[in-house]
Amino acid sequence: MFKKPDEEYVKDGAQNVTEKDVQKVINRSEDIQRKFSAKGPLARFVEDGKLLIAVVKDYWAGAYREIPYGAIGSIVFTLIYVLNPFDLMPDVLPIIGQVDDVAVMSACLILIEKDLHKYKDWKQGQG
Fold first, then answer.
1. pTM of the prediction?
2. In angstroms, rounded to a whole number, what is the distance separating the alpha carbons of residues 7 and 36?
3. Which terminus of the chain, N or C, has fewer Cβ atoms within 10 Å?
4. Cβ partners under 8 Å of residue 119, min gap 6
5. Could you tell me if residue 88 is inside a domain?
6. Span 68-105, pLDDT tens digits
């Protein structure tokens, strides 16, 4: 059955995230970033994509642990979803193929908004 890509979808996906998935996001971060840099619906999330990748990297390195693992799971699930060209709507379909990616990204940002703001403040204090 088709699941609507909303907050519940992201929460459910986050529960299945493993350390291997976190490592995949770190190893493929440049590929993921290119997805946000491309023209199309995901382009509006360029800065958010960079921030999500950064929080995963900082969490994995142990530099930032003030975020619940559930939020990290949501981020990792979302970034892997965006990376996967064969998700609910295959990315080979122009524009339409990214609509579900945008929905998942938006749902993730809603779920982790407070945690992401705290991380952003911390990150700015590091520079």
1. 0.88
2. 20
3. N
4. 51, 55, 58, 64, 66, 67
5. yes
6. 999 999 999 999 999 987 766 665 566 667 788 889 99
